[in-house]
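Late entry, written up from scratch paper. The run itself happened at the end of the previous shift, but nothing got recorded in the book at the time, so transcribing now.
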Amino acid sequence: MTSTSTSTTEQFADVSATTLLRFATAGSVDDGKSTLVGRLLHDSKSVLTDQLEAVEAASLKRGQEAPDLALLTDGLRAEREQGITIDVAYRYFATARRRFILADTPGHVQYTRNMVTGASTAELAVVLVDARNGVVEQTRRHAAVAALLRVPHVVLAVNKMDLVDYAEPVFAAIAEEFTTYASELGVPEITAIPISALAGDNVVEPSANMDWYGGPTVLEHLETVPVSHDLTACHARFPVQYVIRPQTAEHPDYRGYAGQIAAGAFRVGEPVTVLPSGRTSTITAIDALGESVDIAWAPQSVTIRLADDIDISRGDLLAPSGDAPATSQDVEATVCHVADQPLTVGQRVLLKHTTRTVKAIVKEIPSRLTLDDLSQHPEPGQLVANDIGRVKVRTAEPLALDAYADSRRTGSFLLIDPADGTTLAAGMAGEAFAAAKAVAVADAADDEGWDF
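Output as recorded:
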């Protein structure tokens, strides 16, 4: 008899060669999101025996005969007691075709900031909808957040199809409504899948109850969705983290600028511009892992050496001279407020962009976004926890920000409380939505006492 099994070494070799997909899940309360994640982990054989035994024991203690797979992700005591998700839970698993980093995000409106955190690095978002309730306000919020964060792929998982007798018209109506709404926000790709997380229909295995559906299961789509990790096609950006000056007998004149390439590629002999100073030079050498290379690309960590001794320090940005971003002290962006204390007009903050942190002041809050209907509340005066709004910030020093639509790495920033280091807001420079309607907001008067 010929064995078809593979050795553990071969399995790990296959996994190490696969691509990586970062994805986030979101859904309204009781839509079954944690159950979907648990089913996905369980049916893809990504749950360890002791983990499953612990879930089975916890389920029996709560009077449930079958294992509650939602307990695989709802790890906080408050989550298990209330049957809801509160914090972002990260899970790592792999199949023979792809590796995954899953961010299981909360569904409550008061935890919008948690979803922003989980989806900020995601290449795909799974939005759950209860087939009995259809698209609700929170569903639209999640679609809007995914659009704001420029998540390129969105999966609409219409759950609990078993409770509507696996009716195709129910699924079709929900899929059409959601797709129309998300498309208006500029979401580039939407895939609708009918599922039952509790029964396992179309999660990992195809459903025998929905022969009218001919598309992929959730796992099949996750394994095959095209994800581009090729950051070399983006505008080349190199934030300097550290200046290396050994000044030893072996390296008396060595001066290198160390950091991680945020996007694009850099080559020896290429002219570069140092921002925000605007000084120019040429790359003479690139050191990576102790060896000299002719080219390096994102997200490699390297040391770049230049032909000229220029005043460069942590926070400066290297970019190709022919493709350098403009610098400005005026930043207009969309922010999600994540702190309990409000963000107010005139407030002094720190703005952290890549490796650079500068003093700044909130000059204006033109509008607050109502995610339910995407309406704008003009001049709210402040943003509180979980609010998403437009801000205008004036910085003490010029910054080289890209538009968030062009680069999620160099178009994002944080606003920080200078008093205690608390993160106040996560910002996305440039326009809010890819295809949003322009909102006319009257310009506010400049703040008195401006000293930048």
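The longest helix spans residues 168-184.
(Scratch paper discarded after transcription.)
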